[in-house]
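Usage

Read records sequentially. Each one opens with the input sequence:
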Amino acid sequence: MVIKFHQQIYNALESESLKEIDLDFKFTFGCTEDCMGSCCMMIDILLDPWDVETMARYLNTSGQEFVQKYCLYEIGNGSDWPHVKLKDAASGPCTFLKEDGKCEIYPVRPRNCRTAPVGRAVRFNYDGEQVVTEEKIFMIPPTETCAGFETGRQWTVREWFQDADAFKYYKFSDHYTELINYALVKLSSRKWMSSAIARMMSPFLYGPEILRAKLGISEEEVSHEEFYLRRIKALKVILTDMAAGFGFGPLAEQFKAEGTGAMFAGSMMDRVKKILLP
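and closes with the structure output:
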């Protein structure tokens, strides 16, 4: 669903039904009391793992408890890749929308919420082993009730992103989106991914506290941000190994020639631990 969404945006930009802008593009915007919160209902708010992690910590709960309580967890059609979105926002007002129209978790609001009305889509190309990231920035068409473009201060897109701390969120989002793209393109994951494998990935995506407890990794040893990057890296290694076992990906020939025992010496958890530990 994540990759599909980005591709839909690219298609809209290429057909010019959406206009591409850049970081120096200027616009006027400011939320008003009259329409406060109107954009926080009947909308799909997709969450990256970093969104889930920061919101869960803010609410003093675990990532998996957050997903169970506040999210719809779905397996993507055609890719079998797991994704989550805020469940109440999809069918009515967001759970975190207060009576005054303000956000209960505003300091840790999801990436898509913090950058609206500016949107961003990415896609990844491969030049050998090098990953080339291509981004497109655009203005999200306002809803009928949005009065934000009629008032407020003037911003450049760069200023808007800086004010929302969006660049850090985009960095972490891109790591995750590139992992999905890598699995689909390089590992042919559509041909072997299953709901069981998706469940195996869940602690790496949405349950960092589970991995920390199992491996004895404290926050003092590895910060939240660094641990997130290491989890994505570890999951990439695991999926590459799995793909090889199914005959796909860059290690498929090595797996075929050397066999499971020679190629995967030691347990998977031992290899993962080497990535996750400092």
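Summary fields computed downstream for this record:
- The chain is about 45% helix and 15% strand.
- The first strand starts at residue 20 and ends at 21.
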